[in-house]
């Protein structure tokens, strides 16, 4: 396999992951992007999370994050607001999703991850993570 074949494989894998996630989370009315934001918020449930932090985590534009958050707010997953001390800072918080749903979401996320890495040793998993991060850093430097 030559170097030129890597980027199409990455794209094919990415599309397959998005398709699988969207299919598996459809019953919750969540897209992959919405799910990633939801997990980000769940992991920081006690903290005040800003829209800018979500932008940084998701590596998306301001406009795209606003669009995703509006859809999530309309579905009742999040609530947006502003910091009382600085009205320019937009905040995002969970609306208090049912604990049972959160457990199912995390279980499904784990199932997808396990499916992706089936047959990999722990060392191979660590190497893969390292290589993917290195590829990402390479591409953003250009």
Keywords:
single chain, 142 residues, mainly alpha, three-stranded antiparallel β-sheet, 63% helix, globular
Please outline the helices and strands.
Blueprint: H1 6-24, H2 32-43, E1 49-50, H3 51-58, H4 62-74, E2 78-83, E3 86-94, H5 99-116, H6 122-141
Q: Which percent band covers the strand fraction?
A: 5-15%
Largest sheet: 3 strands, antiparallel
* Total DSSP E strands: 3
Question: Radius of gyration, rounded?
Answer: 17 Å
* Head-to-tail CA distance between termini: 24 Å
Given helix and strand content, the structural type is: mainly alpha
Which spans have pLDDT < 50 for at least 5 consecutive residues? none
* Number of helices in the DSSP assignment: 6
> What is the 3D shape?
globular
| Portion in helices | 55-70%
Strand order of the largest sheet: 1-3-2
What's the average pLDDT?
89
Order of helices and strands: HHEHHEEHH
Quick structural overview:
It is built from six helices and three strands, in the order ααβααββαα. It is mostly helical.
Notes on the structure:
The chain has 142 residues and is mostly helical. 63% of the residues lie in helices and 12% in strands. The chain has 6 helices and 3 strands, in the order ααβααββαα. The chain has helices spanning 6-24, 32-43, 51-58, 62-74, 99-116, 122-141; strands at 49-50, 78-83, 86-94. The chain has a 3-stranded antiparallel β-sheet. The mean pLDDT is 89.
